[in-house]
Amino acid sequence: MAALKNYDGKYWRDLFDSRIGKTTWPYGSGVWSKKEWVLPEIDSDDIVSAFEGNSNLFWAERYGKQFLSMNDLWVKHCGISHTGSFKDLGMTVLVSQVNRLRKMNRPVVGVGCASTGDTSAALSAYCAAAGIPSIVFLPANRISLAQLVQPIANGAFVLSIDTDFDGCMQLIREVTAELPIYLANSLNSLRLEGQKTAAIEILQQFDWEVPDWVIVPGGNLGNIYAFYKGFHMCKELGLVDKIPRLVCAQAANANPLYLHYKAGWDQEFKPVKANTTFASAIQIGDPVSIDRAVYALKKSNGIVEEASEQELMDAMAQADSTGMFICPHTGVALAALIKLRNQGIIGTNDRTVVVSTAHGLKFTQSKIDYHSNDIKDLACKYANPPMQVKADFGSVMDVLKKYLLSKVPKN
Ligand SMILES: N[C@@H](CCOP(=O)(O)O)C(=O)O
């Protein structure tokens, strides 16, 4: 692109003023900022806020309306927490109980887990805070760098094992049967007791009005059951008179629950070999909580959906483009929602909550790959790579001119 050799400030000011109105340039350090501005009073509708109140449940207004024609779509962000995932909710309960047991001189020397990243991060943090040794089994080269560094930094004994998550899970079960290590994966119901509080909190945040749908990404499948447990408890207590329909969303590359659902539940469950997925935290083929998950889905008239790599990455990119910064697993949940919307199963006005399980900052490599258009066999159609530009005023003005004109609303 040719650089603007003779930058004509007045020409551009007049052009923009004529296109978008004189009074729309209140800020900046250039000539526009020298105009006298009286800031308009803003209306509550103008407020752009990530969160409703001071909570972790936010209305995904733009994403819902723009991409799904939905008016009542919410994201429950469980990744805004100490170690950046929903695992903190359960781990505080479990490690507190272990703390108590140790004070009672019970023979618990350490706490251990197999992990795809988030469980080990939470376990190591809470154990470190309590001065309890933690041992984590991680599948080598299968978790994000941000997740790997968490237990390392928190002083856990980290075993990087040359197998997948299911292999690590099998090993930790065998090891904890032999050694005084307390097992911290979600087959331990203490974890679920903590995790179910997210469901109770959703109801409280909606002032005990029950949403129509809650969509949860699923891997080891403790979480979908924990949500059911929380909703069911509120119903039993008479706080609400029904529970939401649950949707469990799986990556198509690791979809044993989806296959079981499609086979009609009655067939015997068959574990699968989980293939590589960007949703690495749910890359699990033999989930420990399969029976609980099936129970939760049956009881809530639930649905299981799956998302391909293309679908989950595109959903994540679109969501991010509306101001979110979600993890790929939340991309799986959104991709499932898109499918259910397209099939007319979830309606325009259905109040729907998508559970975002971890912070997007734990999964930056997948976003970098996508926005660099650098993923084999994937069309990165919403990629937004940075523009390389020469360090001269004319070149910068040239690209900005083109960009801004493409953004001026057409009357
Ligand atoms: N995604 C999990 C896998 C282990 O699940 P858990 O809920 O049984 O601990 C992880 O973050 O490690």
From TrEMBL:
EC annotation from Swiss-Prot or TrEMBL: 4.2.3.1
Keywords: Allosteric enzyme, Amino-acid biosynthesis, Chloroplast, Lyase, Plastid, Pyridoxal phosphate, S-adenosyl-L-methionine, Threonine biosynthesis, Transit peptide
Main location: plastid
A GO BP annotation: threonine biosynthetic process
CDD domains: Thr-synth_1
Cofactor(s) in the UniProt record: pyridoxal 5'-phosphate
GO cellular component assignments: chloroplast
An MF annotation (GO) of this entry: pyridoxal phosphate binding
Compartments where located: Plastid, Chloroplast
Pathway(s) of this molecule: Amino-acid biosynthesis; L-threonine biosynthesis; L-threonine from L-aspartate: step 5/5
EC class of the enzyme, as a word: lyase
Listed Pfam families: PALP
Catalysed conversion reaction: O-phospho-L-homoserine + H2O = L-threonine + phosphate
Quaternary structure and partners: Homodimer.
PANTHER family recorded: CYSTATHIONINE BETA-SYNTHASE
Protein name: Threonine synthase
Protein source organism: Malus baccata (Siberian crab apple)
Classification of source organism: Eukaryota, Viridiplantae, Streptophyta, Embryophyta, Tracheophyta
